[in-house]
Amino acid sequence: MAASGTPLQLDLKAILRARLPRRVSRLVPGFAISLLEKLIRQDGLNRLLREAYPAEGSAFSASILRQLGITVEVKGLEKLEGRGRLIFASNHPLGGLDGITMVKILGETYGDDNIRVMVNDMLMNVEPLAGVFLPINKYGSQARRSAVLINEAFASDRHICVYPAGLVSRLSADGHIRDLQWQKSVVAKAIEFDRDIVPVRFEAQNTDRFYRLARLRKQLGIKINLEQALLPGEMFSQKGEHFRVVFGEPMTSASLRASGVSPAVLAERLRLRVYSV
Q1: Is residue 267 in a domain?
Q2: What is the pLDDT of residue 157?
Q3: Is the pLDDT of residue 182 over 80?
Q4: Which of 98, 134, 209, 271 could form a disulfide with 94 if both were Cys (CB 3.0 to 4.6 A apart)?
Q5: Which residues of 70-106 are buried (b: 16+ CB within 10 A; e: fewer)?
Protein backbone atom coordinates (compact mmCIF):
# COMPACT_ATOMS: atom_id res chain seq x y z
CA MET A 1 0.00 0.00 0.00
CA ALA A 2 1.28 3.46 -0.85
CA ALA A 3 1.77 6.26 1.61
CA SER A 4 -0.42 9.32 1.10
CA GLY A 5 0.75 11.40 -1.84
CA THR A 6 2.96 8.69 -3.34
CA PRO A 7 2.32 6.09 -6.06
CA LEU A 8 1.07 2.67 -4.98
CA GLN A 9 3.91 0.14 -5.20
CA LEU A 10 3.59 -3.61 -4.74
CA ASP A 11 5.85 -5.22 -2.13
CA LEU A 12 5.26 -8.97 -2.10
CA LYS A 13 7.53 -9.51 0.89
CA ALA A 14 5.57 -7.00 2.98
CA ILE A 15 2.24 -8.47 1.81
CA LEU A 16 3.29 -11.97 2.88
CA ARG A 17 4.47 -10.68 6.26
CA ALA A 18 1.13 -8.95 6.78
CA ARG A 19 -1.09 -11.85 5.71
CA LEU A 20 0.80 -14.87 7.07
CA PRO A 21 1.33 -15.73 10.74
CA ARG A 22 4.77 -14.53 11.81
CA ARG A 23 6.02 -18.06 12.52
CA VAL A 24 5.02 -19.09 9.00
CA SER A 25 6.35 -16.04 7.14
CA ARG A 26 9.75 -16.46 8.79
CA LEU A 27 10.00 -19.95 7.27
CA VAL A 28 9.51 -18.69 3.69
CA PRO A 29 13.02 -18.54 2.16
CA GLY A 30 14.16 -15.36 0.46
CA PHE A 31 14.80 -17.11 -2.87
CA ALA A 32 11.17 -18.31 -2.93
CA ILE A 33 9.93 -14.74 -2.49
CA SER A 34 12.27 -13.56 -5.25
CA LEU A 35 10.91 -16.24 -7.58
CA LEU A 36 7.34 -15.18 -6.78
CA GLU A 37 8.22 -11.55 -7.43
CA LYS A 38 9.50 -12.53 -10.88
CA LEU A 39 6.47 -14.74 -11.51
CA ILE A 40 4.01 -11.92 -10.86
CA ARG A 41 6.25 -9.43 -12.72
CA GLN A 42 6.40 -7.15 -9.68
CA ASP A 43 8.91 -4.72 -11.21
CA GLY A 44 6.81 -4.35 -14.36
CA LEU A 45 3.60 -3.84 -12.39
CA ASN A 46 5.27 -1.17 -10.29
CA ARG A 47 6.41 0.65 -13.42
CA LEU A 48 2.81 0.71 -14.65
CA LEU A 49 1.64 2.06 -11.31
CA ARG A 50 4.30 4.78 -11.21
CA GLU A 51 3.50 5.90 -14.74
CA ALA A 52 -0.25 6.00 -14.05
CA TYR A 53 0.09 8.03 -10.84
CA PRO A 54 -1.82 10.10 -9.69
CA ALA A 55 -4.74 9.08 -11.93
CA GLU A 56 -7.67 7.19 -10.39
CA GLY A 57 -10.71 5.31 -11.64
CA SER A 58 -11.29 5.31 -15.39
CA ALA A 59 -8.31 7.65 -15.98
CA PHE A 60 -6.04 5.17 -14.18
CA SER A 61 -7.48 2.30 -16.24
CA ALA A 62 -6.96 4.24 -19.47
CA SER A 63 -3.32 4.84 -18.52
CA ILE A 64 -2.68 1.13 -17.89
CA LEU A 65 -4.17 0.18 -21.26
CA ARG A 66 -2.25 2.94 -23.02
CA GLN A 67 1.05 1.85 -21.48
CA LEU A 68 0.43 -1.72 -22.64
CA GLY A 69 -0.52 -0.57 -26.14
CA ILE A 70 -3.96 -2.19 -25.86
CA THR A 71 -6.83 -0.94 -28.03
CA VAL A 72 -10.50 -1.51 -27.22
CA GLU A 73 -13.48 -1.86 -29.56
CA VAL A 74 -16.91 -1.38 -27.96
CA LYS A 75 -20.16 -2.60 -29.55
CA GLY A 76 -23.77 -2.11 -28.47
CA LEU A 77 -23.30 0.30 -25.57
CA GLU A 78 -25.04 3.08 -27.48
CA LYS A 79 -28.29 1.07 -27.38
CA LEU A 80 -28.40 1.47 -23.59
CA GLU A 81 -28.46 5.26 -23.61
CA GLY A 82 -31.01 6.59 -21.15
CA ARG A 83 -31.46 3.31 -19.29
CA GLY A 84 -30.71 3.51 -15.59
CA ARG A 85 -29.66 1.19 -12.76
CA LEU A 86 -28.24 -1.55 -14.96
CA ILE A 87 -26.33 -4.67 -13.96
CA PHE A 88 -23.57 -5.43 -16.44
CA ALA A 89 -22.89 -9.19 -16.24
CA SER A 90 -19.66 -10.09 -18.03
CA ASN A 91 -17.60 -13.15 -18.73
CA HIS A 92 -14.18 -13.06 -17.05
CA PRO A 93 -11.48 -14.16 -19.51
CA LEU A 94 -8.43 -12.34 -18.16
CA GLY A 95 -8.75 -11.79 -14.42
CA GLY A 96 -7.34 -8.27 -14.30
CA LEU A 97 -7.31 -6.40 -17.56
CA ASP A 98 -10.93 -7.19 -18.32
CA GLY A 99 -11.91 -5.47 -15.06
CA ILE A 100 -9.60 -2.55 -15.77
CA THR A 101 -11.06 -2.21 -19.26
CA MET A 102 -14.63 -2.26 -17.96
CA VAL A 103 -13.80 0.49 -15.48
CA LYS A 104 -12.51 2.59 -18.38
CA ILE A 105 -15.54 1.92 -20.60
CA LEU A 106 -18.23 2.40 -17.97
CA GLY A 107 -16.45 5.20 -16.13
CA GLU A 108 -15.97 7.22 -19.30
CA THR A 109 -19.60 6.60 -20.30
CA TYR A 110 -21.41 7.17 -17.00
CA GLY A 111 -18.84 8.84 -14.75
CA ASP A 112 -16.75 7.07 -12.12
CA ASP A 113 -19.09 8.02 -9.28
CA ASN A 114 -22.00 6.36 -11.11
CA ILE A 115 -20.47 2.88 -11.40
CA ARG A 116 -19.34 0.11 -9.09
CA VAL A 117 -17.45 -3.06 -10.04
CA MET A 118 -17.76 -6.05 -7.72
CA VAL A 119 -14.34 -7.55 -6.89
CA ASN A 120 -12.56 -9.75 -4.37
CA ASP A 121 -11.94 -7.59 -1.30
CA MET A 122 -8.16 -8.06 -1.64
CA LEU A 123 -8.28 -5.82 -4.72
CA MET A 124 -9.33 -2.89 -2.53
CA ASN A 125 -5.59 -2.52 -1.92
CA VAL A 126 -5.33 -1.23 -5.50
CA GLU A 127 -5.94 2.29 -4.24
CA PRO A 128 -6.40 4.06 -7.62
CA LEU A 129 -9.45 1.85 -8.26
CA ALA A 130 -10.78 1.60 -4.70
CA GLY A 131 -13.33 4.34 -5.40
CA VAL A 132 -15.10 2.31 -8.10
CA PHE A 133 -14.63 -1.16 -6.60
CA LEU A 134 -17.30 -2.89 -4.50
CA PRO A 135 -15.63 -5.47 -2.23
CA ILE A 136 -16.87 -9.04 -1.81
CA ASN A 137 -15.88 -10.77 1.44
CA LYS A 138 -17.36 -14.11 2.48
CA TYR A 139 -15.75 -14.58 5.87
CA GLY A 140 -16.52 -13.49 9.44
CA SER A 141 -17.62 -10.02 10.45
CA GLN A 142 -16.22 -8.59 7.21
CA ALA A 143 -18.77 -10.67 5.31
CA ARG A 144 -21.61 -8.90 7.10
CA ARG A 145 -20.12 -5.49 6.32
CA SER A 146 -19.59 -6.54 2.70
CA ALA A 147 -23.23 -7.66 2.40
CA VAL A 148 -24.42 -4.27 3.68
CA LEU A 149 -22.24 -2.38 1.17
CA ILE A 150 -23.40 -4.60 -1.69
CA ASN A 151 -27.10 -4.13 -0.85
CA GLU A 152 -26.60 -0.37 -0.53
CA ALA A 153 -24.98 -0.31 -3.98
CA PHE A 154 -27.78 -2.33 -5.57
CA ALA A 155 -30.37 -0.06 -3.92
CA SER A 156 -28.61 3.03 -5.32
CA ASP A 157 -28.89 4.56 -8.79
CA ARG A 158 -25.37 3.46 -9.76
CA HIS A 159 -24.70 0.97 -12.53
CA ILE A 160 -23.03 -2.21 -11.27
CA CYS A 161 -20.64 -4.53 -13.11
CA VAL A 162 -20.43 -8.13 -11.92
CA TYR A 163 -18.45 -11.23 -12.85
CA PRO A 164 -20.91 -14.00 -11.90
CA ALA A 165 -18.42 -16.84 -12.48
CA GLY A 166 -16.25 -15.52 -9.67
CA LEU A 167 -13.23 -17.15 -11.31
CA VAL A 168 -11.34 -16.55 -14.52
CA SER A 169 -12.51 -18.45 -17.63
CA ARG A 170 -11.02 -21.87 -18.28
CA LEU A 171 -10.39 -24.02 -21.36
CA SER A 172 -13.40 -26.30 -21.81
CA ALA A 173 -13.39 -29.85 -23.16
CA ASP A 174 -14.49 -28.61 -26.59
CA GLY A 175 -11.44 -26.36 -26.86
CA HIS A 176 -13.26 -23.06 -26.20
CA ILE A 177 -12.43 -20.56 -23.47
CA ARG A 178 -15.54 -20.31 -21.30
CA ASP A 179 -16.60 -19.17 -17.84
CA LEU A 180 -17.39 -21.79 -15.25
CA GLN A 181 -20.88 -21.91 -13.71
CA TRP A 182 -22.40 -18.50 -12.99
CA GLN A 183 -23.67 -17.77 -9.50
CA LYS A 184 -27.42 -17.33 -9.17
CA SER A 185 -27.01 -14.24 -6.97
CA VAL A 186 -26.75 -11.99 -10.04
CA VAL A 187 -30.33 -12.90 -10.98
CA ALA A 188 -31.57 -12.79 -7.39
CA LYS A 189 -30.20 -9.26 -6.96
CA ALA A 190 -31.70 -8.12 -10.26
CA ILE A 191 -35.14 -9.31 -9.16
CA GLU A 192 -34.82 -8.01 -5.60
CA PHE A 193 -33.68 -4.53 -6.62
CA ASP A 194 -35.66 -4.27 -9.88
CA ARG A 195 -32.64 -3.98 -12.19
CA ASP A 196 -32.21 -5.09 -15.79
CA ILE A 197 -29.19 -7.27 -16.61
CA VAL A 198 -27.00 -6.49 -19.62
CA PRO A 199 -25.01 -9.50 -20.90
CA VAL A 200 -21.45 -8.48 -21.83
CA ARG A 201 -19.05 -10.55 -23.91
CA PHE A 202 -15.39 -9.66 -23.45
CA GLU A 203 -13.31 -11.16 -26.25
CA ALA A 204 -9.80 -11.96 -25.00
CA GLN A 205 -7.84 -14.87 -23.54
CA ASN A 206 -4.81 -15.63 -21.42
CA THR A 207 -1.76 -17.55 -22.62
CA ASP A 208 -1.74 -21.30 -23.21
CA ARG A 209 0.51 -21.63 -20.15
CA PHE A 210 -2.31 -20.47 -17.90
CA TYR A 211 -4.80 -23.00 -19.27
CA ARG A 212 -2.27 -25.86 -19.28
CA LEU A 213 -1.47 -25.28 -15.62
CA ALA A 214 -5.18 -25.09 -14.75
CA ARG A 215 -5.85 -28.40 -16.52
CA LEU A 216 -2.82 -30.12 -14.96
CA ARG A 217 -3.74 -28.90 -11.50
CA LYS A 218 -7.26 -30.30 -11.93
CA GLN A 219 -5.95 -33.63 -13.26
CA LEU A 220 -3.68 -33.96 -10.22
CA GLY A 221 -6.60 -33.26 -7.89
CA ILE A 222 -4.98 -30.16 -6.41
CA LYS A 223 -7.66 -27.90 -4.95
CA ILE A 224 -5.46 -24.82 -4.47
CA ASN A 225 -5.93 -22.51 -7.45
CA LEU A 226 -2.26 -22.47 -8.50
CA GLU A 227 -2.85 -20.85 -11.87
CA GLN A 228 -4.14 -17.68 -10.20
CA ALA A 229 -0.52 -16.84 -9.35
CA LEU A 230 0.12 -16.37 -13.08
CA LEU A 231 -2.58 -13.73 -13.56
CA PRO A 232 -0.59 -10.58 -12.63
CA GLY A 233 2.12 -11.55 -15.09
CA GLU A 234 -0.46 -12.48 -17.71
CA MET A 235 -1.22 -8.77 -18.07
CA PHE A 236 2.04 -8.29 -19.92
CA SER A 237 1.22 -11.04 -22.43
CA GLN A 238 -1.60 -8.78 -23.65
CA LYS A 239 0.75 -6.02 -24.86
CA GLY A 240 -0.42 -4.65 -28.20
CA GLU A 241 -3.64 -6.70 -28.18
CA HIS A 242 -7.06 -5.55 -29.38
CA PHE A 243 -10.01 -6.24 -27.07
CA ARG A 244 -13.59 -6.40 -28.34
CA VAL A 245 -16.36 -5.79 -25.80
CA VAL A 246 -19.95 -6.46 -26.90
CA PHE A 247 -23.00 -5.27 -24.91
CA GLY A 248 -26.15 -7.28 -25.58
CA GLU A 249 -29.85 -6.62 -25.15
CA PRO A 250 -30.87 -6.40 -21.47
CA MET A 251 -32.83 -9.11 -19.72
CA THR A 252 -35.46 -7.07 -17.88
CA SER A 253 -36.23 -7.62 -14.23
CA ALA A 254 -39.88 -8.09 -15.21
CA SER A 255 -39.02 -10.94 -17.59
CA LEU A 256 -36.80 -12.57 -14.97
CA ARG A 257 -39.55 -12.34 -12.37
CA ALA A 258 -42.17 -13.75 -14.74
CA SER A 259 -40.01 -16.58 -16.11
CA GLY A 260 -41.24 -19.17 -13.64
CA VAL A 261 -37.80 -20.80 -13.34
CA SER A 262 -35.18 -20.66 -10.62
CA PRO A 263 -32.42 -18.04 -10.41
CA ALA A 264 -29.86 -20.82 -10.97
CA VAL A 265 -31.47 -21.75 -14.30
CA LEU A 266 -31.72 -18.09 -15.31
CA ALA A 267 -28.06 -17.54 -14.42
CA GLU A 268 -27.08 -20.39 -16.75
CA ARG A 269 -29.26 -18.95 -19.52
CA LEU A 270 -27.57 -15.60 -18.99
CA ARG A 271 -24.12 -17.18 -19.17
CA LEU A 272 -24.98 -18.86 -22.47
CA ARG A 273 -26.49 -15.64 -23.78
CA VAL A 274 -23.20 -13.80 -23.19
CA TYR A 275 -21.49 -16.05 -25.73
CA SER A 276 -24.18 -15.40 -28.35
CA VAL A 277 -24.41 -11.59 -28.19
Answers
A1: yes
A2: 97
A3: yes
A4: 98
A5: bebebebbeebeeeebbbbbbbbbbbbbbbbbbbbbb
